[in-house]
Fold:
Amino acid sequence: MKMKKWLAASMTALAMAAGTMAVSADSLTLSGGEVLDMGSSVSVYPGERSFFGSQLHDWLLEGNAAKTVEAALEGAKVFPKDKDYSREFSEMAVSILRTGKVYQVRAQADDTFYQGMMVSLSVSDSDMLKLALYGNEAMADRNEGEKIADVKAASPEKAGTSENSLDRALTLLHGAVKVEDHSSWEDRKSEKGLAYRTADAKAVLTRNGFMIPLYVKGIITRGEGKTVYTLFAADQASGRYFQPLLDKALKEAGK
Structure:
């Protein structure tokens, strides 16, 4: 009898949990106000309702979030010891993340379940120039003081979109990510006049002998005094399913 009551209570709890996970909409809004309609076949959930998104959300609310990032950067020796960049970068990074938007998208077709995560961050022009400085300092320290690029040449419109920027990011990941294939960045405009840049890539993440094949799509839009960076990531099978849907949503995107 106790077992039956326990099972009944468990099923009730699951039903209630399912109810709280109801779909918010079939569209999502990026950090710059851009709206992507994913269509009726895709379910869109706020990121804090997902397993990983909820952990990130809860961690960002902690008062010592920036300290945690700072300690990790210092432990990895990302920046020169004689500079206070670890603290400055950590505080700015956490501040940007706290204002970002995170979504989980899900779909089911042909008895297969697909899912992916989307993160959208709005970065001011002033913060973008600081990030370029931090990136140059980190790479210069790894190359014994040799500057890879002149910070003054970095523009908010192009920062983070070139292949050089991708190479820098991958170098900082200590070879944990291997890009198998990627497209070039393309400048496009939606039917509603929204200008954006986009690119796709297939990569393999390797950590402690564990390999994860990934599909990644980058989207960049410009606003007044800011740049909006959006990243969609999924396993490669889910990526093949969502790629045409994302391209269609971008083609029809507006504010």
